Amino acid sequence: MEINYEQIKLMQHAIGLQNAKSIQRHKYNAYRNYFCENGNSKEWEDLVNKGLATSRSGDKPNEGYTYYFVTKLGLEALGKIMMIKITEQN
């Protein structure tokens, strides 16, 4: 399964992984897991189709926003690419 550079950056942003300082002993604990897009994103929709992300529309009708979330499979794939273990805070 291929993931391009832009998709990697989007997934990292969604889980709050902005710099290497937040990685401790090859582990990262994601403090969030969402990305808000005005409309749909080609890159995110590709990740959804691959099972690496999910999406839902904004809460208000005609809001126009789509929220994307990295799935467990997506966290595992990103972790393999980065050679770290990614977990989520509960």
How many DSSP-defined strands? 5
Average pLDDT rating = 90
Distance between the termini: 28 Å
Give me the Rg, rounded. 13 Å
Low-confidence stretches: none
Summary of the model, kept short:
The chain is built from three helices and five strands; from the N terminus they run αββαββαβ. It has helices at residues 5-14, 42-49, 72-82, and strands spanning 27-30, 35-38, 53-57, 65-70, 85-88.
Task: Give a verbal description of the structure.
This protein has 90 residues and is an alpha+beta fold. The protein has a single domain (5-18, 27-88), classed as Arc Repressor Mutant, subunit A (Orthogonal Bundle). It is built from 3 helices and 5 strands. A 3-stranded antiparallel β-sheet has the order 2-4-3. Strands 1-5 form a two-stranded parallel ribbon. β3 (53-57) and β4 (65-70) form a beta hairpin. The termini are far apart. The model has no long low-confidence stretch (mean pLDDT 90).
Topology summary:
Elements: H1 5-14, E1 27-30, E2 35-38, H2 42-49, E3 53-57, E4 65-70, H3 72-82, E5 85-88
Main features:
single chain; about 90 residues; alpha+beta; Arc Repressor Mutant, subunit A; three-stranded antiparallel sheet; about 30% helix; about 25% strand; globular
